[in-house]
Amino acid sequence: MSGEVSLETIVSLCKRRGFMYQGSEIYGGLAGTWDYGPLGTVLKRKILNLWWETFVGSRDDMYDIDSAILMNPKVWQASGHVDTFTDPLVECQNCHARLREDYIKDKKCPVCGKDKFSEPRQFNMMFKTNIGPVQDEKSISYLRPETAQGIFTNFKNVVDSFYPDVPFGMAQIGKAFRNEISPRDFIFRSREFEQMEIEYFVHPEEWEKAFEQWRKDIHKFLKALGLPADKVHELEVPDADRAHYSKRTIDFEFDFPIGREELLGLAYRTDFDLMNIQKASGKSMEYRPKDGGAPFVPHVIEPSFGVERAMMAVLSAAYTEDEVNGEKRAYLKLPADLAPVKVAVSPLLKNKPELADKAREVYKMLKKEFGAVMYDDNGNIGKRYRRQDEIGTPYCVTIDFDTLEDDTVTVRSRDTTEQKRIKIAGIITTMS
RNA sequence: GCGGGUGUCGUAUAACGGCUAUUAUCCCAGUUUUCCAAACUGGUGACGGGAGUUCGACCCUCCCCACCCGCACCA
């Protein structure tokens, strides 16, 4: 059922319930930017936490990094971004196709076959900015188009501080910026987005082994996000389509409401980045094994996730419609770890002070334990259940007249709509 | 960026060159309600933005912005 959800439904729910709003909406918006609302902020944080816990916190070979968004422009020259991001594009004057000049063979448009083109124009996918008050060529810098370079530029620092055994990884969560020509499809392609990236440094001969391990670990993580395995697909990216630095890439695609699209990438970047830095900086990137083996420049496996895409996948996978008492019900079947609200507490009737007082008491107790707890006395009880369903709250605790007698409450499950009566003292263990 | 389309409360909609605009739902407050969007009362809330034409523009014209569909782009 969730497979048929339209993007529009997701966007609408996100706005109505406070997950995502269009950026600068009150001023007419700004294309390619989105703001997280209260629930979206929490959902995002939970996705980040799950990623971090899975790939960093629970391992002993990972190192955190949080590098600056503004970097020395030499970084982007060395990485190849300045060159590859500034390819001149020409426009076919017949069919208006925009093409990289170096793609055109025989001076003919590959789309329509005609041979008249406009003058080449520079397109730069990096956001330019100026550092300091004087705006000239010397002051130009860029907002990073990927977080990866912040890791590579700190490789030597981390090796010097910790001297970890290879293989080891460096992980970073942070914003990246790309001046996309046409941002589209909700948060799928935006100009400002958040990456969760790892650069995993390996011995050159060990890359395939590490690559395969990451491949498996990624599938496990996607499962933990609640993404059904039959909607996740691996795409072996052919030579011609791979990024300039990569010798092997698998795109992990997901069946989004907009179709099958890339959710994340797993790339073997070879020693491309470290070698570039070594050449550009003159500093050695060699790693000397502690066992006295031959020094080498590590190769890199890069699993690269986008938070927005992950969130869009999570939301569209979670969206479910069914029927309760003959009426349509929409709910988010979010994994309990990800639900922005873990449990909602309600008095059965809001105008009975004794129920409301008791409900407040239970609310406070659960709030202290779980944090993500909401007190809800809007409308009537059925309405509250539906509202909580729609934001993916796994449990609703209702305080009724029996509660006052015997300290029991009903715990209602989002997925089954069934209720169990349990002792207040047992709520926490039931949900943990 | 190109071509086409769209733009009225959060959502879905109605009307009109002439009282700053309809209805439903949502939302908020209250009454009520002993478990799945009940009912009743009241309330907040919109013509995407800016120019122009006009005595008067949500409506006509132009520009901008945003969104949708194609194309291209997505190292």
List keywords for this structure.
432 residues; alpha+beta; 7-stranded mixed beta sheet; 5-stranded mixed beta sheet; 31% helix; globular; RNA-binding
What would you say this structure looks like, in words?
This protein is α+β, with helices and mostly antiparallel strands and 432 residues long. The protein is built from 13 helices and 22 strands. The strands form six sheets. A seven-stranded mixed sheet has the order 3-10-11-15-14-13-12. It has a five-stranded mixed sheet with strand order 19-18-20-21-22, with helices on both faces. Helix 10 links the parallel strand 18 (343-347) and strand 19. It starts with 6 loop residues before the first helix and ends with a helix. The protein binds one RNA strand of 75 nucleotides through helix 1, helix 4, strand 6 and helix 11.
